[in-house]
Specification:
The complex is a heterotrimer.
Chain A: H1 3-31, H2 38-55, E1 59-60, H3 62-87, H4 96-118, E2 126-127, E3 133-136, E4 139-142, H5 143-165, H6 167-177, H7 179-184, H8 189-214, H9 222-236, H10 241-261, H11 267-281
Helix pairs in contact in A: 1-5, 1-8, 1-9, 1-10, 2-3, 2-8, 2-9, 3-8, 5-6, 5-8, 6-8, 9-10, 9-11, 10-11
Chain B: E1 17-28, E2 31-42, E3 46-50, H1 57-65, E4 72-77, E5 80-81, H2 87-92, E6 95-97, H3 110-115, H4 124-127, H5 133-145, H6 161-174, E7 179-183, H7 191-206, E8 211-215, H8 219-225, E9 228-233, E10 236-241, H9 243-247, H10 250-257
Parallel strand pairs in B: 3-8, 3-9, 6-7, 7-8
Antiparallel strand pairs in B: 1-2, 1-4, 4-5, 9-10
Helix pairs in contact in B: 5-6
Chain C: H1 3-34, H2 45-65, H3 67-76, H4 78-94, H5 100-125, H6 134-151, H7 155-177, H8 182-202, E1 212-213, H9 220-242, H10 245-262, H11 267-293, E2 295-296, H12 298-301, H13 304-317, H14 323-342, H15 347-361, H16 365-381, H17 389-394
Antiparallel strand pairs in C: 1-2
Classes of the chains: A mainly alpha, B alpha/beta, C mainly alpha.
Chain lengths: ~300, ~260, ~400
């Protein structure tokens, strides 16, 4: 396989990483929380789609598969809203470490419940396609991956439009910048934060549906995505959606290149090492705000 | 001892100036927070630093203590060029700084806050011993001095703001400062405590022979306590002189009342 | 009475009501167990669990009621108490009073005591919460396993080498990660742990994903004494340090690192020392665990769930205290054992729930709660703000604007 093929694979899957990361960045920027359970939202979204498809017979057409995405997103919105409103809100104003700990606890609880409910065996979503791949310029591009790529971009774009153009989106940005002032002009800050969490979970869940279709699902897949999101957000800058996009595409490409040129067993090691390196040497990110605030 | 206010601002020579800044400039992105500021504090003086919000006073402090690296200019401590030195080095050289928001070690007891502030227990062996008799005695003295004796076991963060201010002051004294930088010592406390603060500062200046540079918004306070005053606005030094001179300075009045 | 005095008084009343409430609940549970309404105590695991919970509630809340006295007693007799514990633990094993099962439980309790206390040294005392301390455990474990299996090195020597390896690793990683603050440090250390897992999976010397199997393992009693020895030593060291300037400085780094630096403290030295000490003890028990477990692989050596577990132990017991993490370890480990035997596979869910409940309801931990209760009583006795003398009391009669 050529290097170009690796790069293309990387871009295709990287867009999903980016979408997941955007949700992660949203919570971090608005609710000031590093959500270590973010990856579990991805996992749950994937399983949502999976079970809906099982209900529909097990192997479905592209149309039905796509139809499960909004449903998964809706479910995850509710889950995210509830988590923030009921649990995480209690410690929002405490130290960062406490929010890390509580979200890690939630992450573990969800993972283990998933194992109990659905067993640890990996699952995948089977979509029936006549020709699974298209061939362009000597490159193999699986249709599902292309679909996922487009889907991820669409989700990201929708989120960006939502934040920029709608009233609710502006309210969210207001709360991110100045909670006290927002409260004064009548914005329900707690509700807005919970809505943000819900949206973040929904985005992650939508990405999870696509991930289920191209990469497969297992209960403990979440942590990897959480860490990847962290790398991407640190790289691209917290407030920046373009940054997350660039970061996600880059990370995907790096991973695929590592897998192709070195060995697939080293991909995760490379990603996580990148995390450490970025935190230490480039905490400002390429775009957007810096990760390190002033003392 | 204090410079004679009658003779006005005698330019301190390098011999007597404990702190001197020459042309110190600090920029943050496009904003020049401190612009070519020259100033000095002579040994034994109490010098005030005033100016409207955003004038650059705290930034100048940070430049002097080494918390910020200056973009241009030099900082001298007792005649030695200390530009670029770290806050830690400056502190060990006797330049102790207090913070506007009053920083104490919140979860440690009042007594522990004092014990750990000594400048002298820094050799390796001392680290693994309980605080020395000398250190304990000094801490006891200071606790009595600021009247926090009854609260010695209290978690510092649970005390009121005024009590924490007194603690921070005591901690600064514990470090046996040569020069003390105070950031709004009269802020957030009531009139009778302000009187106390004036006494403490005078006492520290004369009895303990500590040179003092302070930022303050409370005009009465500054006029009362300072030998000389510098006024900053928009990062620049706009005036310097005795309290009387400053009170009558047009540029200072303009800056505060915004008459431009 | 000023509003603050009134508020303190109300808080104290609420606290007392809470304490009496829990006391009553604990007592009720004990009564139910006694009446055998929860199964016979001698045979039923569930009954034993309830008994333990009820007893704990009763004893703990009684202690809370006498908070000041308890703390004073503990401080005055700390070394004696430690000695009593050590001697008792040795005696119980030597006299053969512990069967294999309870010996295992105890041994693991000691080990987690070390893990939690070591975490607390860097996390609770110094304020650098590491999500990757298990990395040291795994390094210690793999070092011991490789030396023992491939080179036939005697176990005591493997312990020494393992400890040194953990220290070296800590020094190298510390240079990189100790520059980061708070949450970012936590994530970076998590990254380190995950990289360690990947590396262990890929290298042949560590046996790849299959790990290393060790036969010819030492007697369980020996490991029991070993873990106990490390625990007692660590408690002694940490307790002693907490009374010295070194211990105070660690706390200043936690409370306000900028202030500490401004006051002339070289925080890098102290952070690194705490980090190294933490690594040393963690690596040591890891080296003992490998032969005891007869087996080490990436998942057990660098167990992320254990990492969270001992953080929670430190948390529940009370971060920043010496005995808190140890008590938390004892309590949680025995709880996990019981849950495992009653509802296999659910212990991690329970752990997750415990984390959530603790973070929300008891963030200062048990010993922390004890200390706060004692502190509140003392403050209340002194009459609130008047304690500092007239000047201090008047200090903030105004709201005062901060410009």
């Amino acid at each position: 396989m050529s290097v170009v093929q690796f790069v293309v694979n990387g871009l295709l899957v990287g867009s999903l990483f980016a979408t997941v990361a955007v949700g992660f960045a949203l919570i971090w920027g608005v609710v000031d929380i590093i959500n270590l359970a973010h990856g579990e939202m991805v996992m749950l979204g994937g399983y949502c789609s999976y079970w809906l498809i099982q209900l529909a017979g097990g192997e479905v057409s592209v149309g039905i598969a796509l139809a499960t995405v909004p449903v998964a997103m809706a479910v995850l919105f509710v889950v995210g809203y509830a988590l923030q409103r009921v649990l995480i809100q209690q410690v929002t104003d405490e130290s960062l470490f406490l929010t890390l700990l509580i979200t890690f606890g939630i992450s573990i609880a969800i993972q283990q419940l998933a194992i109990q409910a659905w067993s640890a065996t990996p699952r995948s979503i089977n979509v029936g396609l006549a020709d699974p791949s298209i061939f362009v310029a000597g490159l193999i591009i699986p249709k599902m991956k292309l679909l996922a790529f487009v889907g991820a971009l669409v989700l990201t774009l929708l989120l960006w439009l939502f934040l920029k153009r709608t009233r609710r989106g502006r309210a969210i940005r207001a709360v991110a910048q100045n909670p006290q002032a927002s409260e004064l002009i009548g914005i329900d800050v707690e509700h807005t934060r919970a809505v943000t969490f819900g949206i973040s979970a929904a985005i992650a869940g939508g990405a999870g549906s696509f991930i289920g279709m191209i990469l497969g699902l297992w209960p403990q897949m979440g942590l990897n995505y959480t860490l990847k999101s962290f790398v991407i957000v640190v790289f691209g800058g917290i407030g920046s959606i373009p940054g997350a996009l660039v970061g996600g595409l880059s990370l995907g490409t790096i991973e695929e290149l590592t897998a192709g040129l070195v060995s697939s067993t080293w991909t995760l090691a490379v990603s996580f090492s990148l995390l450490i390196v970025l935190l230490v040497f480039k905490p400002d990110g390429l775009f957007g705000q810096s990760v390190e605030g002033e003392q | 001892m204090a410079t004679d206010p009658q003779t006005g601002s005698a330019a301190g020579t390098a011999d007597t100036a404990v702190i001197r800044t020459e042309n110190v400039t600090k920029r943050f992105g496009g904003l020049t927070a401190v612009d070519s500021v020259d100033m000095h504090v002579d040994r034994g003086e109490i010098v005030g630093l005033i100016g409207p919000n955003g004038a650059g006073k705290s930034t100048l402090f940070n430049c002097i203590t080494g918390a910020y690296e200056v973009d241009e200019g030099h900082v001298y401590l007792n005649g030695t060029d200390v530009t670029g030195s770290s806050e830690r080095t400056m502190s060990q050289a006797g330049l102790v700084r207090m913070f506007q928001e009053t920083r104490v070690y919140g979860e440690m007891s009042v007594e522990e806050n004092l014990l750990v502030s000594s400048r002298y227990d820094t050799d390796v062996l001392s680290q693994f011993r309980t605080p020395s008799q000398e250190t304990r005695e000094k801490a006891d003295e200071l606790l009595a001095y600021v009247d926090l004796d009854g609260l010695r076991d209290m978690e510092a963060g649970r005390m009121s703001f005024g009590q924490q201010k007194l603690l921070e002051f005591a901690m600064a004294l514990m470090a046996d400062p040569d020069v003390l930088l105070m950031d709004e010592p009269a802020g957030g406390i009531n009139p009778s405590m302000i009187e106390q603060m004036l006494d403490y500062i005078r006492d520290t200046n004369t009895e303990q022979e500590v040179t003092i540079l302070l930022i303050e918004h409370n005009m009465d306070f500054v006029m009362e306590i300072a030998d000389r005053i510098y006024a900053l606005a928009h990062g620049e030094r706009i005036a310097e002189g005795t309290p009387t001179e400053i009170q009558n300075d047009d540029r200072v009045l303009d800056a505060y009342l915004g008459r431009e | 009475m000023s509003t603050r005095d009134l508020r303190t008084r109300l808080q104290t009343v609420r606290a007392y009501l809470g304490t009496y409430g829990w006391l009553a609940l604990g007592g009720a549970i004990l009564v139910l167990v006694g009446l055998q309404w929860l199964g016979p105590l001698s045979t039923s695991r569930a009954s034993l669990l309830f008994f333990a919970v009820g007893l704990f509630l009763v004893v703990w809340n009684l202690l809370l009621l006498r908070a000041t006295g308890v703390l004073e007693f503990a401080h005055d007799h700390a070394w004696t108490l430690l000695a009593v514990f050590a001697v008792g633990a040795v005696a119980v094993q030597a006299a053969g009073l512990l069967n294999s099962y309870w010996s295992t439980v105890a041994l693991q309790m000691f080990m987690f005591g070390v893990l939690a206390l070591s975490w607390d040294l860097i996390g609770g005392q110094t304020g650098y919460p590491s999500f990757g301390n298990m990395a040291f455990f795994g390094i210690g474990g793999y070092t011991a396993a490789v030396l023992f299996k491939n080179y036939g090195v005697a176990l005591p020597l493997t312990l020494v080498v393992a400890a040194v390896m953990a220290l070296v690793f800590a020094a190298i990683i510390g240079v990189i990660v100790l520059r980061l603050r708070g949450g970012y440090f936590a994530i970076a250390t998590l990254g380190v742990l995950l990289v360690a897992i990947q590396v262990a999976r890929n290298l042949s010397i560590t046996g790849g994903t299959d790990g290393i199997i060790l036969l010819d393992v030492p007697d369980q009693a020996l490991i029991y004494y070993g873990m106990l020895a490390v625990l007692v030593t660590e408690i002694a060291v940490v307790y002693y340090l907490s009374t010295t300037r070194f211990g105070y400085v660690l706390n200043t780094i936690r409370d306000d690192e900028r202030k500490a630096t401004a006051m002339g403290i070289n925080t890098t030295y102290y952070k690194t020392a705490a980090w190294g000490l933490s690594a040393l003890f963690t690596g040591l028990v890891g080296a003992m665990w490998a032969p005891y477990n007869t087996f080490i692989d990436p998942a057990t050596a660098f167990n992320t769930a254990w990492n969270v577990e001992f953080i929670v132990m430190a948390f529940i017991g009370g971060t920043g205290t010496v005995i808190g993490p140890v008590l938390g370890a004892f309590g949680i480990r025995s709880l996990v054992f019981q849950i495992d035997s009653l509802f296999t596979g659910w212990q991690l869910v329970v752990l997750g729930v415990v984390v959530i409940v603790t973070v929300i309801g008891l963030p200062e931990g048990l010993v922390g709660q004890l200390k706060q209760r004692a502190s509140a009583l003392k403050y209340y006795e002194y009459g609130g703000g008047a304690a500092g003398g007239a000047e201090a009391a008047d200090a903030d009669a105004t709201e005062g604007g901060n410009d």
